Amino acid sequence: MPTSSPTAEIVVVGGGIAALELVLALREAAGDRVHITLVAAQPDFVLQPALVAAVPSRHGAHRRPLRAIADDLGVTLVQAAVASVDPVGRRVVLRRGDPLPYDSLVLAHGAQTVPAFEGVIALGGTVESQELRTLREEIAGGRVRSVAFVAPSRAGWLVPLYDAALLATKSGHTVRVSLITREVRPLEAFGAEASATVAAALAAAGIDFIAGQTARVVEGDVRVAGGSISADRIVALPLVRGLRIAGIPAGGEFGLIPVDRFGRVKGLEDVYAAGDATDYPVKHGSVAGQQADAVAAAIAAPAGSEPFTPVLRATLLAGTAAPIPVGDGAGNDEPAQVPGRYLAPYLRGADETVAA
Ligand SMILES: Cc1cc2nc3c(=O)[nH]c(=O)nc-3n(C[C@H](O)[C@H](O)[C@H](O)COP(=O)(O)OP(=O)(O)OC[C@H]3O[C@@H](n4cnc5c(N)ncnc54)[C@H](O)[C@@H]3O)c2cc1C
């Protein structure tokens, strides 16, 4: 942690899982040695998974005013979007014009989604759960008899696509479901054991798993090498792209922020990034939380901190009755709908306070 002032000024950009986990982890690791300013474009923290899964969560939908969280954690909240960073002058510049100085800066401002195909139901940042609900109703009413679920790339939010495919088969009416992906095995990033678990779930649900394909959608059909798959409806993941902030490097074709295993932004001093904003290919709340924990440790105690070593773990909800934990250590714990070592208990505590 830089020592230019007795209390280091940490600026955190974002208001999602990565930003809040970072704040909580940093409070734990550095206590009052840091002053934290959270710069968030939106007024509320929204836990996307609860919206996305379109399945009632044990904790309900999570939407909390960031103002209340910031007051609770002793954090200064600046409700504004960051436009640029001046790494030499060590300040961020808000879109409305004013600068904010920092000793350490953490970028946790997520990613943007770009539709991969036209004329499909897109699972994405601005979650289309209404369209998915309508789709399930159409299947239940027998009006839709076949659905193709398509992952256009290996990077991104793959877990919800599998979830949506499994949910489609539970709509109470026979439907032909195919899942087309560039992966070689189902959810391959989560490891061989997870793949086997998911493959068994897909097979049990009668889903046709079509692996290793770079799919295109042409005139309402999914084109793959050597053929085409026709379906009444197509559901596709969007492409993941970086949200550009001037002064911050953007890597490769996806424009995401290149980081090392401590979350340090390559080429910049005392600038870190965590969550969907980074170039780590798996986009998931639990990954965002782990990256934030590694960054908090690196800021609080750079000499002894542990690098980010991803433990990939998710829960396929697959209908409320049968959640399927997949990945490292799956089955040792309850399904983790709320990610984050510090964020999950914090939100649970707030729920209990509200309920009391
Ligand atoms: C369809 C779908 C389903 C998903 N399902 C699950 C699931 O079941 N379980 C799970 O764990 N994960 C799931 N995820 C992934 C999970 O939602 C993301 O990985 C996670 O939200 C990433 O958190 P983040 O904090 O990095 O980014 P975000 O949650 O995107 O937060 C970014 C924040 O930064 C703010 N911001 C953006 N630009 C600026 C700026 N310039 N200045 C200031 N603030 C800014 C935004 O307003 C936002 O508050 C799903 C994602 C999708 C799209």
UniProtKB/TrEMBL annotation:
Domain of life, source organism? Bacteria
Gene3D superfamilies, per database record: FAD/NAD(P)-binding domain
Give a GO molecular function annotation for the protein.
oxidoreductase activity
Q: Which Pfam families does the entry link to?
A: Pyr_redox_2 (PF07992)
The FAD/NAD(P)-binding domain covers which part of the protein? 9-292
* InterPro entries with a match to the protein in the record: FAD/NAD-bd_sf (IPR036188), FAD/NAD-binding_dom (IPR023753), SQRD (IPR052541)
**The protein, known as:** FAD-dependent oxidoreductase
Q: Which organism is it from?
A: Solirubrobacter ginsenosidimutans
Task: Please spell out the taxonomic lineage of the organism that makes this protein.
Answer: Bacteria, Bacillati, Actinomycetota, Thermoleophilia, Solirubrobacterales
